[in-house]
Amino acid sequence: MKILMVCLGNICRSPLAEGILQHLANEQGLDWQVDSAGTGNYHIGGKPDPRSVKVAKQHGIDISRQRARQITREDLSDFDHIYVMDKSNYKNVVALASSADEKEKIKLLITGDVVPDPYYDDALFEPVFDMIYAECGKLLTFLKK
Ligand code: 4NP
């Protein structure tokens, strides 16, 4: 199973989602490949935001070796499921889809809600981690079936 997590910069939210879901899948002995990407190009090659690295580390998850990349059209055929953090990500990723099949792979990580962008608000990293962690737990149960 190949799962792609997507946000805007690929330095705050989607690196957390990648780290958390990969961690939970590994714990269960599942052979899943989790990756992440951004819709924007500002941070290509960059490390995850130190605030995301810190909050993940506090929960025993190391995301420090990830590097930011921008989503490509090929990702939409390559991955089985693509989870985006907010509605703007959704719009940008859907624009890359070249078939109804690819469009159907794209979903908000939290059905009917968004993971807020914590980039300009230090206080959001902890709640964002908690939201993503809770959702990844549910996702694991759902996708395992
Ligand atoms: P992310 O957060 O999409 O969760 O990685 C952001 C990171 C950087 C910027 C915006 C959001 N930025 O504007 O540089």
TrEMBL record:
Which UniProt keyword terms apply here?
A: Hydrolase, Protein phosphatase
Keyword Mitochondrion appears in the UniProt entry: no
The record's annotation in Gene3D superfamilies points to: 3.40.50.2300
**SMART domains assigned:** LMWPc (SM00226)
Q: What is its EC number?
A: 3.1.3.48
- Give the residues annotated as coiled coil: none
Say which enzyme class the record assigns. Answer: hydrolase
- Please state every residue range assigned to the domain named Phosphotyrosine protein phosphatase I: 1-142
What the entry lists under SUPFAM superfamilies is as follows: Phosphotyrosine protein phosphatases I
Q: Which family does it belong to?
A: Belongs to the low molecular weight phosphotyrosine protein phosphatase family.
Q: Which PANTHER family match?
A: LOW MOLECULAR WEIGHT PHOSPHOTYROSINE PROTEIN PHOSPHATASE, LOW MOLECULAR WEIGHT PROTEIN TYROSINE PHOSPHATASE
Protein name per its UniProtKB record? protein-tyrosine-phosphatase
